[in-house]
Amino acid sequence: MQSSKVLIDFPFPEERIFRYQAMQDILHHLANNPFEEFTQQELASITGADVSSISRSVDLLEKLGVLTVSDQRPARITIDMDHLQRPDSVFMIPQYEFRKPVQVYLDELETRIQKSEDLDELVGVVLFGSVARGTADRRSDIDLLVILDGDLTYGRRICTSLARDIEEESFDGHRYEFEVLVETIDTAVSHGSELREIFDDGLVLARSDQLQELRQTIYASSGGGE
To answer: Domain boundaries in the chain?
Structure first.
């Protein structure tokens, strides 16, 4: 099983950099919650360390480049995305600023599908376009192909509604727009030639056995192997 890794800059700013137990506890918590921000007081409550130990630990971790500390008061502390490696599919997205809005979309989509009586399951989600290629700017849409098992009309409605909801949210002071292409297994097969290009160049963010079978069918029907 793959695990998360935090990359530390070398040379170290001083000797015995991990002399505080709180440093390891802070890194462990932030690496497991990469899209969240915490104050020193919150980290003290979570780790059981006193605030002075948290303060000294945060200072050292910031010198190592693994934390981002905001200028606001109280300061908000988060893991530095450039120093974090995780096996989660969303971390394949080259530009880290797009990862959080995409993750929020995926999490909420799973929740809405589970609550729905008209959709059986999420077959797969593929990110494509400039965000998948790593060439996007702040004005770029987040392009997603969502494949569902269930009623297509209802599926399009909840996927589009979710996109509009997230577009109203702010992520580090920025808003993001989504373009969501929604298909069922049957309609995806009928649009195989167009979807093959997405499979060729996109990043699979949610997968299933059904998605793999669908992908093989699309490649076979469009005249070539994978």
So the answer is: 5-84, 88-222
Is the confidence at residue 108, as pLDDT, over 50?
Answer: yes
Q: Which tens digits make up the pLDDT trace of 116-130? A: 999 999 999 999 999
Predicted confidence (pLDDT) at residue 81 exceeds the cutoff of 90: no
Strand 119-128 and strand 84-85: pairing? unpaired
Scan for tokens 């929604």, then name that residue.
182
- Nearest in space to 3 (alpha carbons), one of 117, 98, 87: 87
E strands within 35-193?
67-69, 77-79, 84-85, 119-128, 142-150, 178-184
CATH T-level topology, domain 5-84: Arc Repressor Mutant, subunit A (1.10.10)
- Hey, which residues does 115 pair with through a beta bridge? none
Q: What fold characterizes domain 88-222?
A: Beta Polymerase; domain 2 (3.30.460)
Q: Which residue do the tokens 């050292």 mark?
A: 60
Rounded distance between C-alpha atoms, residue 144 and residue 122, angstroms: 13
Structure tokens at 125: 């989600």
Minimal CA–CA distance to 205: which of 101, 92, 84? Answer: 92
* 199 three-state secondary structure: helix
Amino acid letter, residue 83: H
Supply the mean pLDDT for the chain.
88
| Nearest to 32, CA basis, from 84, 106, 67 | 84
